[in-house]
Each structure stands twice: as C-alpha cells, then as structure tokens.
C-alpha cells in the first residue's frame, strides 16, 4: 500500500481479508524478459503527478510468454501500449490489485509504454514517491517502485535509466535523479525540466527522484585514479550550516574504501539529500543517496558525539553500497544480507578505523546480544538468508543486517585479512554488474582461498542463536590444557527439521597467572589431528562438530582461558567462570573485548543473585569486591577513557531479561538500579574526580580525544545522578552542569542525569530545554525520547500529553520512533503490571497501521517478545496482539502479529 488510505489489503471490498501469501526462495524463477533501457518522464503536480515510462524490451527465450508487471492499487493506469499500439484491458492484459499481466507480448524486441497518475502529496506510507516538507522525495527499496509505475519491480531486472523531470520552477528549483545531468531548461507556464542519465544498469529499487527547495554544500574528491568527483549535500536552507560533518565523513569513507578495499567511485557526481520524513536511516540510490535528516545534520549545539558517530557510520554505509549492493546487487530479496551484512561489516570496519576499534566492537556486540539474540529467539526468527516471507519490509532485520555482518566477520576471522581480500576481489571479478546470491559470495571466498569452508554455509540457512558450552581442564602431569566444547542449536519456528552443527570459529588465549598471555605451540582436536600454532598468543579453533575437544600442549602453568575473544562468533557462550577468574580477566585480559566481557559477566552474575534475593523478599546487599573491581578499571589510566566508560555500563534490562525464563522486567530494573546506585555510592569520590578532571575546554570538536573525555566525564555524571535525591551537593552539580553545557553531548548528559529523579529540577530542566530548542525538530526528538523512556512511575499520563504536544507528529517516523519506540524501552511504564503500557502501544499501532504500514510494523516489534516475560505479562501482551489482529491490519503488521500468535 503506497497511499495512506484505510488498508484493504488484496481483497475486494466487503470480503474478509485474505491471508497474505508467503513467498518462497525455492520458487525463484528468472524474469523472462530483459530491458535494454527505460526512459521515464515525471510531470510533477500538486493534484497529481503523471509518470510516463517507456521500456525497450525483449523476450529472453525468443518466444511470447505472459509478462507480469508489479503495480500498487494506488496507481491510476492512464495508458498502456506496445510498439505504439494501445492495449485493451481484459483482451490484451488483466489488471488486479497488485499485478498487471500482459497476456501475449511480442516474441522479439518491442517497446512497452505505460502512463500512470499518482498522488505523492497523499502518500503517508513514505514508500514510492511522496512529499516531505513540500518537496518530492522517493524511496523504492524494496518494493516502492511499483507505487510509481507498472514494472517488473524485482532486483534481478536491471536496466539503464533516463529520467526527465518536469516541475514548477519556483516550487521545485532543484530537480535530481540518478547518474549525470545531461540537459536542463525552462518550459512554458513557469515550469522547468532536467534530464538525468545513469550509465550504470540498475534495478528499480535503486531509482530515486528528488525535487524541491534545497541548498547544497559542495566539495570535491579526487579518486586514486584521478577522477574528480563533485560532492553535494542538499538540505533545506535553514539547515545548510549542519552538513560539514557529513561531507567530511563522505570524503573519509571514499578514501578508506580505496585504501582498505581498493574500491573507487565510478561517476563524476555523488549527491546526498536530507529528508525530514523518512521511514528508516538512509538509502543508497545510485549517486543520489537519500538520508533521514537526523543522519546528515549535525552542529555542536544540536548533535551529540553519538550522533556524530552515527552520521559518520551511515554516510559510510550508504557510500559503501555503491559497490556492495549497487555494482553487485541481489538476485532476489532472500539474498538481502548479501549486500546488507557485507556493507554493515564494511561500515563497522570504517568506524573502527576512524575511532576506537575495541569500543566499536563492544558497541556492535551489544546490539547483537541485546536485540538480535532476542529476535532469533522470538516468533519472527529467520535465517540470515530467509527461506520465506510475506512482506519483505519486515525482513530488514537485525538478523539480516547485524548477524549478517557477524557472518562476514567470521569469514574474515577464518581466512585472515589477506584471504578475505582475495575473496572480495574474486567476487567483484566474477559478479560486477550482476544480481547474485549469498552462495555466489561464499563460493568466491572458497575459490579465492582454494579451500572448503564446509559447514560454515549453515550460518545462512539455520535460524536461532547457537549456544556454545565450554568446560576446561588442566593436566598438571603432561602440561596440557583441554577445552571441551559442544554446540546447541535451538528449535526455531521457521524450521522443524534437526539442525546440523555450524562451523564456529573460537578465538582463544590462555592467560598465565602473571597476567600475560601464554605462548601457544600446538593444539590437538578430538578427531586426532594436530596443528602447530607457531608461537602465537591467540589462536582460532575451528569447531565443526556438535561436541569437540581441543587440547593445547606445552602449557607450563594452569592458565585462565580467555574464550571467544573479540566475540569471534555470534553465539551464547556458557562457561563456568568464578568471580575470581572474572575479576582476573577484567584486570588482565589483553583482548579488550574479553576484558570488557569479564566485567559484564561479573555484574550479570551479581544482578541475578540479587534478583533471587529481591524476589524472596530479602534486603539487597551489594558485593563490595565487585565495586572495587569496577573502581580499578574506572581509574586505570593505561586504558582508553571511552573504553573505561563502556566498562562501567551495565547490561540493559532487555539483555538481562533475555537470559532468564519468565522474566519480570520491573524487578530486573529495580535490581539493576540498586547496583547502579551502589556503584555510584561506592565510587562517588572517583566519579567526582573524573568529572572534574575531564572537562574539555575550548570549542567542541568531534575528535577522539574530545569524545573520550566527554564519554568518561558524562559516565561519571550519570552515576552521580543516581545519588542526587539524597545528596544536595550532587543535585547542585547536576544543575550547574546542565546550565554550563556548551554542546549537546554535555547538555543531554546533564538533562538525562537530572531526569532520572522526579521533582522540580526535572520539570525545570525539561521546560528550559524545550524553550531553548523547540525550533529544532531533531533536538525535539531527544526531548521526546528522554521523557518517553522514563522509568518514573505513572509516566503514561505524560505520554498521553506528549501525543497531543506540538513537538509530536504521528506522520513523522522519527517522532514516532522517539516517542513510541522510546516508551517501549521503559521497563517500569511499558511493562506496568496493569497492562496500561501495552494497551497504549496497541492503540498506536492500530492508528499507525492506517497511515504508514512500515512504521506500524516496526512499532509492533516489542510485542513479539511476549514469551520472554512472566505469565501475567504474557497474557496481557497476547491480548493486545489479538486486539490488533482483530482490526484486520495491513500485510506488514499482519505478518508479525500472525507469526507471534
Ligand atoms: N538499503 C536501505 C534500506 C531500505 C529499507 C527498505 N524498507 C538502507 C540501507 O541498508 O543502507
Ligand atoms: Zn544497507
């Protein structure tokens, strides 16, 4: 559905909605026609926009077979002709809600013309061509092009696009599409036109059109072979001072891709446009990336360090798609991870290069563990390469993106940087200009390295998170150290047959009692084969069986094992580790990821022990040795400050809830908060010292030094905030830090710390923040999000007020994600025992479903995890899912709700 009228799905009026049909990977068939080129003319209007498309086509087999074109119900077909001859409905073609079938097209070459009228101004789904802030803007991935014209809207149909845009010159002075501008000029009646030709063939999902009032920041980049590329970032005039960081990020990304992957840009122009109304983050349309404005615009006063990093990463991500996605694209949407997993891996590597690599790794793992693992354990669990779907929009998931990136990272871990690069080179050598599969990528990796990756391929087809169980033993007599490993593959709703063992790379180090890594000489596995390691201190074990043991030889002393270094596989590691071992690794592990991980495990064990006490009515007692261990990391000057801030962060309530059956999120939140408060009280002096020592003087710069210092300083402030309700000195400190903040990172940190406690300070700070920033929509997102996620009891009342507030607009996805998405992260209010939070969310999903199915489907996500919670909450959430289903929602929401129930 492209237009935000009441969703009727694919049924005739008055009938019960048909169950949306699933589409299967196994049913893939090549499209029977090829398209030499496509010429489109857009006549942009206020009441309607007319689209005239002309394709030069030919039958691949040389015979006439029926030709299916996709088209949304919102299209008004004004003309359809073949070789100039109009076609007649019912005779030459059949038209249904979603398809147009030409019964017997010519068997040779022919020209197909199609004229449609569309209404972008009424398109609230933001899919296809729509209007944002008075400007025309498009979003075609995955299936938006069919909301523009009838066309084979599938990624394996690729052609060269010529696009002529005609529009009012005053209203739409800037007219953009993909490729190069080849002609422009004035027309009668105050109109003008522009013609764009994209020399690279592409699928329809990479098409883009933008028309409106923009100003551009311009720059140039010279590629390593000497091509001078014009770079432009378009925004509304009032935001033109906020694009420098995006431009810097783009140039860094272009240079990095040349240095790391030897990939160069392939056109003379690269445009980015910022749109305020956008369903997701950004879109990699060939040479015309469209971005959600929150991922382009940044100024020190309005954006935080987090925003600066996100912008850098996403600008990189979309730019990197030019090769991994555009030059080589997907054969079908089941292969989505071919481009997304690989491009996420590339953007992660880029951000690691630009910032702290261990911190970036921790950040990425936190997302996988707190959110992707939950998805993998829920009703929507699907493999990295799904086998079926109802709505592809619902499969732009953490599994396809982030687990997909972990799969790519595992190739890298198994083959090494050189082997991985050889595989990438062969992939492009074989497939440049093609639409291919994850199997093709896999084959290129194997062939380039002359190796077999065996059961590694199962990572693409088996859903669910493997559990890796490890026990260890040291044999004093023959100086060997053995790891006994077993893997368990969970049953997932998508797959009933038994799963086979997946190749798991287990990166390991053995830490000697003096804190140094032992030198590893050789390892023997339970199949008997022995491998010489060559005196390294870290080694990657390749686990291929359900159960397998690995014995390291010549181990002089009993070591503490550091297993799954750098999170070498996306698995749940189950391994008994005493508090003493964890504290030892927290101070000594040379692998920074596992150093951080030791702290996480230590604190998780403590929280779960305390949860038991809490639930049996006992008074909570902090373990002071844990406070001491954390205090040591916090003040260890040999460590990066940003890393130290991350080490102090506790696992989220969500991640903790995921680890136990029938979780009570409110209890977890209370215990977690007790631990935060206890750490704050125990380390108060240290936090104060850090806060005072890390004030960054001078103008804000998003550089590493500045970001690190702000990160540890604001971590300290956040902890100190936990003490404010009983400590007047701290209360005053929070207020001063809010008033004195000279950039948004510090201002938000102070506001966040103040808002943790109900009271006058909180009310005043929120009011003053609003007064200061009410004209900055992106800052208002922070204001909405902060209030929505509050764990102060009774906040639902505030939520209801905010829904009516001028700062909120249900038609703007960013505002919905901040306010409604933010609310679902509040353990206390979303999970309120009376079910009021769940009812609130369901009401909104039902409302959103009529306006924007993709956004509604994203908002229904928190309900899919209902089986994780206690019986009472399960019943309440389930009742809301049933209520949503009874409203006969659109296909996007239907698929998720149906699968959940
Ligand atoms: N490829 C787009 C995502 C499109 C989502 C469509 N529902 C952005 C990205 O991953 O780069
Ligand atoms: Zn992407």
Automatic annotation (TrEMBL):
<keyword id="KW-0862">Zinc</keyword>
<dbReference type="InterPro" id="IPR045357">
    <property type="entry name" value="Aminopeptidase_N-like_N"/>
</dbReference>
<comment type="similarity">
    <text>Belongs to the peptidase M1 family.</text>
</comment>
<dbReference type="InterPro" id="IPR027268">
    <property type="entry name" value="Peptidase_M4/M1_CTD_sf"/>
</dbReference>
<protein>
    <submittedName>
        <fullName>Alanyl aminopeptidase</fullName>
    </submittedName>
</protein>
<keyword id="KW-0645">Protease</keyword>
<feature type="domain" description="Peptidase M1 alanyl aminopeptidase Ig-like fold">
    <location>
        <begin position="464"/>
        <end position="575"/>
    </location>
</feature>
<keyword id="KW-0031">Aminopeptidase</keyword>
<feature type="domain" description="Peptidase M1 alanyl aminopeptidase C-terminal">
    <location>
        <begin position="580"/>
        <end position="901"/>
    </location>
</feature>
<dbReference type="InterPro" id="IPR042097">
    <property type="entry name" value="Aminopeptidase_N-like_N_sf"/>
</dbReference>
<dbReference type="InterPro" id="IPR035414">
    <property type="entry name" value="Peptidase_M1_pepN_Ig-like"/>
</dbReference>
<dbReference type="InterPro" id="IPR012779">
    <property type="entry name" value="Peptidase_M1_pepN"/>
</dbReference>
<dbReference type="GO" id="GO:0004177">
    <property type="term" value="F:aminopeptidase activity"/>
</dbReference>
<dbReference type="GO" id="GO:0008270">
    <property type="term" value="F:zinc ion binding"/>
</dbReference>
<dbReference type="InterPro" id="IPR037144">
    <property type="entry name" value="Peptidase_M1_pepN_C_sf"/>
</dbReference>
<dbReference type="InterPro" id="IPR024601">
    <property type="entry name" value="Peptidase_M1_pepN_C"/>
</dbReference>
<keyword id="KW-0479">Metal-binding</keyword>
<dbReference type="Pfam" id="PF11940">
    <property type="entry name" value="DUF3458"/>
</dbReference>
<dbReference type="InterPro" id="IPR014782">
    <property type="entry name" value="Peptidase_M1_dom"/>
</dbReference>
<feature type="domain" description="Peptidase M1 membrane alanine aminopeptidase">
    <location>
        <begin position="246"/>
        <end position="456"/>
    </location>
</feature>
<dbReference type="GO" id="GO:0006508">
    <property type="term" value="P:proteolysis"/>
</dbReference>
<dbReference type="GO" id="GO:0008237">
    <property type="term" value="F:metallopeptidase activity"/>
</dbReference>
<keyword id="KW-0378">Hydrolase</keyword>
<dbReference type="InterPro" id="IPR038438">
    <property type="entry name" value="PepN_Ig-like_sf"/>
</dbReference>
<dbReference type="InterPro" id="IPR001930">
    <property type="entry name" value="Peptidase_M1"/>
</dbReference>
<dbReference type="Pfam" id="PF01433">
    <property type="entry name" value="Peptidase_M1"/>
</dbReference>
<dbReference type="Pfam" id="PF17900">
    <property type="entry name" value="Peptidase_M1_N"/>
</dbReference>
<keyword id="KW-0482">Metalloprotease</keyword>
<feature type="domain" description="Aminopeptidase N-like N-terminal">
    <location>
        <begin position="123"/>
        <end position="206"/>
    </location>
</feature>
<dbReference type="Pfam" id="PF17432">
    <property type="entry name" value="DUF3458_C"/>
</dbReference>
